[in-house]
Specification:
The protein contains 18 helices and 2 strands. A hairpin with a 2-residue loop joins strand 1 and strand 2.
C-alpha cells in the first residue's frame, strides 16, 4: 500500500487534477513551436514514431520516478529526498539533487517569464489590429522594437511574474487546483478552435503532410533530437513533477496517470502543429522554429488571412496559458521547501521568491538590448574569460542561463531522480507506490527506471554538451 504520509500543503481532489497539473507543467512554449517543427524536419511520421519510443523508454520512466518519490515523501523535493534517503539507509546528501533542481527551476522561470511576457504584448497587438496586412519585414521590425525596449520588456516580465506568484500564493487547492481546472480546459478549447479554423484555410493537407509524411531516410537523423525532446518536454529534472506527486491521492494509479499525461502532452504538441502550419502556409510563409515562428512568422500569417486578427488573438492567449501553467510548476518546489523550512506563510515566501526571479530575469531583459554586448564564458586567443564586454565569442546572460539549465542542470537532475528511485529507494517501496498487479509489468517498469532511463539521460546530457 502507498505511504500514508500527508502533505502539509494540501492535496489534489482527484487523479484528474494531478493530470491537469502535470500536463500543464509539461505543455509549454516548446510544445507550440519546437515539437511540430522538429516533426516536419526529421521525417514526419518517422520522427513521431521515434519520439514515442523515446517517451516510453526515457521520458515517462523518469516522470514515473519523480511522481512516486514525491508521493512517498509527501514533502517538498528537497525534504522528500532527504527523508527517503535516511529511511533507505542512504546519505541525506541526496537532497542536494533536489536542491539543484529547485535552483534550476527558479533560473528557468527567471527567463521564461520574460519570453512568456512577450505573449502579453502580442495579445494586445493582435487585438487592436497591429499586424493586419503586415509584411515579414514589418513583423520582424515589430518584434525587434519589442526586444529593444527594456521598459516594455520589464512591464510584461513584471506582470507575468505577478500572475505566477498570485496563483502560487493562494495555495495548492485555492490557487493551483482552481486555476488549473480553468486554464487547462481553456487551453484545450482554444487549441481545438485554432485547429478547426486551420481546416478552413485550404492548406490543412499541406500542413498534415509536412507533419506526418513518413520519411524513413531521416529516421536516424532524428534519434538524438527525439530523445532530447522526450526528456525536456515532460518538465522532469527540476522537481516540479515530484512536488505535484506529493499532492497526489494515495489511491490513484501512478502508472496509468503518468501514461495519460504523456499522451496528452504529445497530443497537444501534434494538434498545435496541425493547427499552426496550415495557417503558416496559408499566409505564404515558410515554417521555422523558435521564437521567430511565434513572434514573426505567425503574425504575418494571421495578418494576411481571413479572421486572422481574431484567431491571432486566440493563439497568443493560448501561448500565455501554456506558459502560465508551466511557470507555476517551476515556482512551487521552492515555495513548498521554504514554507517547510521557515514556517512562513505561502504569501510571504512566494513574494520573496517571485521578487528574486524577477531580479534575475532583469538580466535576460537587458540581454536583448542595453547589455547585449555583455558576454560570459569567453574563450579568446589570450585565454578564458568569465566575463568580457563586446567579445566575439561567449554567451550573453540569457544564453548563459539557458545553457546552464537546459544542458547541464536538467539532465543531471533527471539522472539523479531516476537513480534514486531505481537504486536508493527500496524495491518494496517502489512496488508499493506503483501498485502494479502484474509482477512481469513491474519488472519491466523497474528495469526502465533503473537502467534504460539513466542511460538515455546520459546520452542526452553528452549530446547537449557537444552542441
Amino acid at each position: 500500500m502507498a505511504s500514508d504520509k500527508v502533505s502539509i500543503h494540501g492535496a489534489w481532489a482527484s487523479r484528474w487534477v494531478f493530470i491537469l497539473a502535470a500536463t500543464g507543467s509539461a505543455v509549454g512554449l516548446g510544445n507550440i513551436w519546437k515539437f511540430p517543427y522538429m516533426t516536419g524536419m526529421y521525417g514526419g511520421g518517422a520522427f513521431v514514431m521515434m519520439y514515442l519510443v523515446c517517451i516510453f523508454l526515457v521520458g515517462l520512466p523518469i516522470m514515473l520516478a519523480e511522481t512516486l518519490i514525491g508521493r512517498r515523501g509527501r514533502q517538498s523535493p528537497v525534504n522528500t529526498l532527504k527523508t527517503l534517503a535516511i529511511e533507505s539507509g542512504a546519505s541525506p546528501k541526496w537532497s542536494w539533487a533536489a536542491l539543484m533542481g529547485m535552483i534550476a527551476a527558479l533560473l528557468i522561470l527567471s527567463f521564461y517569464s520574460v519570453v512568456a511576457g512577450w505573449s502579453l504584448d502580442y495579445i494586445l497587438g493582435m487585438g487592436r489590429g497591429q499586424f493586419s496586412g503586415v509584411t515579414a519585414d514589418g513583423a520582424g521590425a515589430a518584434f525587434g522594437a519589442l526586444t529593444a525596449d527594456p521598459w516594455r520588456l520589464t512591464l510584461w516580465h513584471t506582470l507575468f511574474m505577478l500572475l505566477t506568484g498570485f496563483v502560487i500564493a493562494r495555495g495548492v487547492v485555492a490557487g493551483l487546483e482552481r486555476s488549473l481546472r480553468i486554464m487547462m480546459p481553456l487551453l484545450f478549447v482554444l487549441l481545438l478552435i485554432l485547429l478547426g479554423y486551420s481546416m478552413t484555410t485550404g492548406y490543412f493537407m499541406q500542413g498534415f503532410h509536412f507533419l506526418f509524411d513518413f520519411q524513413p531516410d531521416k529516421l536516424l537523423d532524428g534519434v538524438l533530437a527525439a530523445m532530447g525532446h522526450a526528456f525536456f518536454t515532460l518538465s522532469v529534472g527540476v522537481g516540479s513533477i515530484m512536488v505535484y506527486g506529493a499532492y497526489m491521492p494515495k489511491n490513484a494509479s501512478i502508472g496509468g496517470t503518468i501514461l495519460t499525461v504523456g499522451i496528452l502532452d504529445t497530443l497537444v504538441a501534434l494538434t498545435a502543429g496541425l493547427a499552426l502550419f496550415p495557417i503558416v502556409f496559408a499566409g505564404g510563409m515558410e515554417p521555422g522554429a523558435g521564437p521567430g515562428l511565434m513572434f514573426v512568422t505567425l503574425p504575418v500569417a494571421f495578418g494576411n488571412i481571413a479572421f486572422g486578427q481574431i484567431m491571432g488573438t486566440v493563439f497568443f492567449i493560448l501561448v500565455l496559458i501554456a506558459a502560465w501553467t508551466s511557470s507555476i510548476s517551476m515556482l512551487e518546489p521552492a515555495v513548498a521547501y521554504l514554507v517547510e523550512r521557515t514556517r512562513r506563510s505561502r504569501v510571504v515566501v512566494t513574494s520573496v521568491l517571485a521578487l528574486l526571479c524577477w531580479i534575475v530575469g532583469m538580466g535576460t531583459v537587458l540581454s536583448f538590448n542595453i547589455a547585449a554586448e555583455a558576454k560570459f564564458f569567453v574563450f579568446a586567443d589570450d585565454g578564458f574569460h568569465l566575463f568580457q564586454w563586446g567579445a566575439e565569442g561567449g554567451r550573453n546572460f540569457f544564453d548563459s542561463i539557458d545553457y546552464l539549465t537546459s544542458r547541464i542542470l536538467l539532465p543531471l537532475g533527471g539522472l539523479a531522480f531516476a537513480v534514486f528511485a531505481g537504486w536508493v529507494l527500496k524495491r518494496e517501496a517502489v512496488r508499493d507506490e506503483l501498485a502494479l498487479k502484474s509482477p512481469l509489468l513491474f519488472g519491466v517498469v523497474y528495469w526502465l527506471i533503473r537502467v534504460v532511463a539513466p542511460i538515455g539521460v546520459l546520452i542526452v546530457f553528452v549530446a547537449e554538451l557537444m552542441k
